[in-house]
TrEMBL record:
Its cofactor is pyridoxal 5'-phosphate. NCBIfam families: PRK05355.1, serC_1. InterPro entries: Aminotrans_V_dom, Pser_aminoTfrase, PyrdxlP-dep_Trfase, PyrdxlP-dep_Trfase_major, PyrdxlP-dep_Trfase_small. Homodimer. It is found in: Cytoplasm. This is Phosphoserine aminotransferase. One of its GO terms (cellular component) is cytoplasm. It catalyses: O-phospho-L-serine + 2-oxoglutarate = 3-phosphooxypyruvate + L-glutamate; 4-(phosphooxy)-L-threonine + 2-oxoglutarate = (R)-3-hydroxy-2-oxo-4-phosphooxybutanoate + L-glutamate. Binds 1 pyridoxal phosphate per subunit. Keywords: Amino-acid biosynthesis, Aminotransferase, Cytoplasm, Pyridoxal phosphate, Pyridoxine biosynthesis, Serine biosynthesis, Transferase.
Length: 360
């Protein structure tokens, strides 16, 4: 059996070494006679797995003791509500920057709980750029400033961390987490759905500055209360044990690769190759302002949309899978997360070059 190159935006390709290790440990995890899936979350074995995963993540991302790391459930989307419920405190308003579909979803959900001020938006440009922070209409009395560092669907990524002053900065890092070094100390809260750079879907990692705990509104569901989750080591109820374990294997793998610094260099190279190819070929195009192009999600269009299905069929036949763009934007999208080997990008470029030559 051979593995294909899977360019899916999420759930996304995982490192082959991680899958093999999980396979080898499936029936009997280190002499326990059972799979991690079957273990009590209160067992010494699982608690060790969980603590090691957290420790490795702290090391990889440079997370200090000023922050709690939570392994929650419900995906990144559940955080769209969890954040305002927990962070508004005695305030009523929150600032959001709108750079695409995921920002919009976060904004729509927050509006159910907060007076949302869209302090900056690039909607007028069709989300092809990040609005200039000099023009952001942020408010000093906002409970937090939320932004989406990488818009997975549009393929738009910030190359800077916004300065929110004393207002806690909140970031949806679902599709950029661990892809490059980031100064966590600049953030009040970071969250990331796992299914891109961390592990299986459903799990969501939340990194929260400890002084932001304990402000949840009275009506906040217990399972969404950060303080409760932190006080219980993310085990107030039965956590997503197998996903947590798999995330731990991914963190170990990342450390073996040289950590996020090394990944950042590889990711920059993979993205540059692909964008350079797209820019150098009249048949393909990417609409994003070059300095805001995502390293992780590379959307592109063909010169003629009528060729899309033929392009996808040929790609599938070569084991280049899931290149179809999101239904809302069309075209193609190659997601090239940490676990996508450089050979996958090379194989995609070879195919794109051949297709353009034959059909262009
Ligand atoms: C940036 C971003 N935020 C949020 C989500 C939603 O994540 P989930 O499906 O885990 O709720 C996604 C996509 O999957 C995403 O790419």
């Amino acid at each position: 059996m051979s593995r294909a190159f899977n360019f899916c935006a999420g759930p996304a390709t995982l490192p082959e070494a991680v899958l093999k290790q999980a396979q080898s440990e499936m029936l009997d995890w280190r002499g326990t006679g059972m799979s991690v899936m079957e273990m009590s979350h209160r067992s010494d074995e699982f608690v060790a797995i969980a603590e090691t995963a957290e420790q490795d993540l702290r090391e990889l991302a440079g997370i200090s003791d000023d922050y709690a790391v939570l392994f929650m459930q419900g995906g990144a989307s559940s955080q769209f509500a969890t954040i305002p419920l927990n962070l508004l405190g005695d305030k009523t308003s929150a600032d959001y920057i709108n750079t695409g579909i995921w920002s919009k979803k976060a904004i729509a959900e927050a509006k159910r709980y907060a007076d949302v001020n869209v302090a900056g938006s690039s909607e007028d440009s069709g989300f092809t750029t990040v609005p200039d922070p000099a023009g952001w209409n942020t408010r000093a009395d906002a409970a937090y400033l939320h932004y989406t560092p990488n818009e997975t669907i549009g393929g738009l990524e910030y190359y800077f961390i916004p300065d929110s002053g004393d207002v806690p900065l909140v970031a949806d890092m679902s599709s950029t987490m661990l892809s490059r070094p980031v100064d966590v100390s600049k953030f009040g809260l970071i969250y990331a759905g796992a299914q891109k750079n961390i592990g299986p879907s459903g799990l969501v990692v939340v990194i929260i500055r400890k002084d932001l705990l304990g402000k949840a509104r009275k009506e906040t569901p217990t399972m969404m209360n950060y303080q409760v989750i932190a006080d219980n080591g993310s085990m107030y109820n039965t956590p997503a044990t197998y996903s947590w374990y798999l995330a731990g294997l991914v963190f170990k793998w990342l450390k073996e690769q040289g950590g996020v610094q090394a990944m950042g260099e590889i990711n920059a190279r993979k993205a540059r190759k692909l964008y350079d190819f797209i820019d150098g070929n009249d048949f393909y195009a990417n609409p994003i302002e070059p300095r805001f192009r995502s390293w992780m999600n590379v959307p592109f269009t063909l010169a003629d949309d009528a060729l899309n299905s033929e392009f996808l069929k040929g790609a599938d036949a070569r084991g280049l899978l899931n290149l179809k763009g999101h239904r809302s934007v069309g075209g193609m999208r190659a997601s090239i997360y940490n676990a996508m080997p450089e050979e996958g990008v090379d194989a995609l470029i070879d195919y794109m070059a051949m297709f353009a030559k034959e059909r262009g």
